[in-house]
Design brief:
Length: 118
């Protein structure tokens, strides 16, 4: 990747490595016994809500990126959450509530379009 796509991925890596976010997830898993996927979603949602509440339009967009990162990480932490569709050899249209840049970058070639509710 290069240019804007690479910058989006770099920003995601920085967000995923945030020490406070990691500490929040670790505390939920190790102390409260929350499943990793749930802990990730809880932590990233809280983090995103805090960013969005600052009232800055640019930061609000980053809040959506944090949520997208959390959803992707939760799917990776719990393979049971992975959607089993899209295995057809035919072209498909993906229907989703929301998709982040990392989600779009990982779509299989059979996805030729997307309809978003978010």
């Amino acid at each position: 990747m290069s240019g804007e796509e690479a910058e989006i991925v770099r920003a995601g890596v920085l967000m995923a490595g945030d020490p406070q976010l990691l500490a929040t997830v670790e505390e939920a898993v190790m102390v409260r016994g929350v499943p990793a996927s749930t802990a990730i979603l809880e932590a990233t949602d809280a983090y995103a809500d805090a960013i969005a509440s600052l009232g800055d339009e640019t930061l609000a967009a980053r809040a959506d990126d944090v949520r997208s990162l959390g959803q992707r990480a939760a799917r990776l932490a719990s393979p049971a959450l992975e959607h089993s569709g899209g295995r057809s050899a035919e072209d498909v249209i993906l229907i989703a509530q929301d998709l982040g840049p990392a989600d779009v970058a990982e779509l299989p070639a059979t996805v030729v379009g997307a309809a978003l509710a978010g």
